[in-house]
Amino acid sequence: MKLTVNGEVREVTSTTLAALLDELDYAPDFLATARNGEIVPAAERSRCALKDGDRIEILSPMQGG
Fold first, then answer.
1. Does residue 64 lie in a domain region?
2. What's the start-to-end Cα distance of the chain, in Å?
3. What is the pTM of this model?
4. CA quadruple 17, 26, 12, 54: dihedral positive or negative?
Protein backbone atom coordinates (compact mmCIF):
# COMPACT_ATOMS: atom_id res chain seq x y z
CA MET A 1 0.00 0.00 0.00
CA LYS A 2 1.10 3.60 -0.48
CA LEU A 3 1.55 5.84 2.55
CA THR A 4 3.02 9.29 2.93
CA VAL A 5 5.66 9.03 5.66
CA ASN A 6 7.16 12.32 6.82
CA GLY A 7 6.14 13.90 3.51
CA GLU A 8 7.55 11.12 1.32
CA VAL A 9 5.32 8.65 -0.57
CA ARG A 10 6.41 5.10 0.26
CA GLU A 11 5.22 1.66 -0.81
CA VAL A 12 4.99 -0.56 2.29
CA THR A 13 3.62 -3.96 3.31
CA SER A 14 2.81 -3.12 6.95
CA THR A 15 -0.81 -3.04 8.07
CA THR A 16 -0.30 -1.45 11.53
CA LEU A 17 1.70 1.51 12.74
CA ALA A 18 3.87 -0.73 14.96
CA ALA A 19 4.70 -2.96 11.98
CA LEU A 20 5.50 0.12 9.87
CA LEU A 21 8.02 1.36 12.44
CA ASP A 22 9.65 -2.07 12.34
CA GLU A 23 9.60 -2.20 8.52
CA LEU A 24 11.26 1.22 8.31
CA ASP A 25 13.83 0.32 11.02
CA TYR A 26 12.71 2.91 13.58
CA ALA A 27 13.49 2.22 17.23
CA PRO A 28 10.05 2.88 18.75
CA ASP A 29 11.19 3.72 22.28
CA PHE A 30 11.73 7.45 21.77
CA LEU A 31 9.29 8.38 19.03
CA ALA A 32 6.13 10.40 18.63
CA THR A 33 3.77 9.18 15.93
CA ALA A 34 0.68 10.52 14.17
CA ARG A 35 -1.71 9.14 11.55
CA ASN A 36 -3.60 11.65 9.44
CA GLY A 37 -2.81 14.44 11.91
CA GLU A 38 -3.94 12.52 15.02
CA ILE A 39 -1.37 11.54 17.66
CA VAL A 40 -1.06 7.78 18.15
CA PRO A 41 0.23 6.88 21.64
CA ALA A 42 2.90 4.16 21.80
CA ALA A 43 0.50 1.77 23.54
CA GLU A 44 -1.94 1.97 20.59
CA ARG A 45 0.50 1.53 17.69
CA SER A 46 -0.03 -2.22 17.38
CA ARG A 47 -3.82 -1.64 17.09
CA CYS A 48 -3.54 1.35 14.75
CA ALA A 49 -4.58 -0.05 11.35
CA LEU A 50 -3.13 1.63 8.29
CA LYS A 51 -5.03 2.28 5.06
CA ASP A 52 -3.80 3.15 1.59
CA GLY A 53 -3.22 6.90 1.40
CA ASP A 54 -2.69 7.50 5.14
CA ARG A 55 -0.31 10.28 6.17
CA ILE A 56 2.15 9.17 8.84
CA GLU A 57 4.45 11.43 10.83
CA ILE A 58 7.29 9.92 12.83
CA LEU A 59 9.24 12.28 15.06
CA SER A 60 12.24 11.58 17.25
CA PRO A 61 13.73 13.94 19.84
CA MET A 62 16.93 15.78 19.02
CA GLN A 63 19.66 16.75 21.43
CA GLY A 64 20.72 20.34 21.62
CA GLY A 65 19.89 23.51 23.30
1. no
2. 39
3. 0.90
4. positive
pLDDT digits (tens, 9 = 90+) for 11-51: 999 999 999 999 999 987 889 999 999 999 999 999 999 99
Contacts of 24 (CB under 8 A, 6+ apart): 5, 10, 12, 58
* Number of domains the chain is built from: 1
**Can you tell me the distance from the alpha carbon of 12 to that of 15, in angstroms, rounded to the nearest whole number?**
9
Q: Does 65 have pLDDT greater than 60?
A: no
Look at residue 39 and tell me if it is in a domain.
yes
Domain range for 40 is 2-59
Q: What is the CATH number of the domain that holds 53?
A: 3.10.20.30
Give the pLDDT confidence score for residue 53 in this predicted structure: 98
